[in-house]
Amino acid sequence: MKIFKRALSAELMSSASAIFLIILGIVVAQRAGNIVRQVSKGILPNDAIGTILTFSLVQFMPMMLSLAIFLAVLLTLTRWHRDSEMVIWMNAGLSLRQWVAPILRFISPIVLIISLFSLVIMPWANEKADNYRAQLKKRDELSSISPGTFKESSNGDRIYFIESFDKLGYEVKNVFVQSRQHGKTGIITANTGSRFKANNGDNFLRMEHGRRYEITPNTLEVMTTEFERYDIRVEIKEAAPSTSTAQTRSTQSLVSGASPGDHAELHWRLAIPISTIVMVLLAIPLSFVDPRAGRSLNIMFAILIFIIYNNMLSIFQAWITQGKISILIGLWPVHLIFILLGWYLYHRRKHLKPLIPDWFKRRAKRA
């Protein structure tokens, strides 16, 4: 028995670690690509990539951990079935029920971590991310400029180009500014420049050793002025104050909340660790491999159940928010449906019946 538990725990640990790293890499690549696209469009400054990516990973961490341990249990037991190791352990006297305890013991610390993220860390990260985005919207126009790219001001009357910044972002080199004032177009170029704040709190871009060209539209009139120093007032964006949402509120405040949205968010946070336990228990009978049905059919069926489970949770959460479902009922019908599905699969597996009925296989082949 000790050999069985040790072998199972070791393989589950290695599988879960590898799968989590793969999922983490996929999420990082997807989120980083999305953030970089926003930076290239000027929506976000380039120095905000790391911070926003970190907040995104914290927000997705419960779902990544849940999917990782579900796939780890499923793939590990599937390999044992495929390589006939499961037959050896069952012939040694191990029943299907005896697999539940060591698997639950293995996932218990991970479920606790998922619960901590879902109930405490994730809402904190959502609040910090919203506050950080609100602070980014209040930054001046120069803060969102990427070196070597053109950037239009928020009101559309200026275009900036700065070749490079120093490490602190206060000294700039090779500055180009185009502006429109009083029906005329002004172009300013300078070799160097710097940012500074006046006594009244206004932000300025001070350019040194440059030229200013003033062009009158539809004419050949161009006025050129050389200067030693030229100051441009930089506008600060006016951003609406960030409002608190159910996703950013603490779990303790959601318990005492009165709105359906608060209760829907509370049910969702509790559903993440609960659904993790249910799906891991479902993975035990789903891992059975029927040689006549193909090696990957059970994995496809398990992933389909995982997707349906999470989609149903999202639908019921939306119905709670809309008031279509009582807050006392919450998401529990979804959990009950899949608990009953797990009992059905255990029953068929205990009596050595295929998990997928023959009539479904025949219909799938005809389709």
From TrEMBL:
GO cellular component, one term: ATP-binding cassette (ABC) transporter complex
Key word Acetylation present: no
Subcellular localization: Cell inner membrane
Transport keyword on record: yes
InterPro entries attached to this UniProt entry: LptF, LptG/LptF_permease
Membrane topology: Multi-pass membrane protein
One Pfam family recorded for the sequence: LptF_LptG
Keywords, sorted A to Z: Cell inner membrane, Cell membrane, Membrane, Transmembrane, Transmembrane helix, Transport
Residues spanning the membrane: 12-32, 52-78, 99-125, 270-289, 301-319, 325-346
Superkingdom of this protein's organism: Bacteria
GO biological process, alphabetically ordered: lipopolysaccharide transport; transmembrane transport
Protein name: Lipopolysaccharide export system permease protein LptF
Source organism (scientific name): Methylophilus medardicus
Taxonomic path: Bacteria, Pseudomonadati, Pseudomonadota, Betaproteobacteria, Nitrosomonadales
Gene: lptF
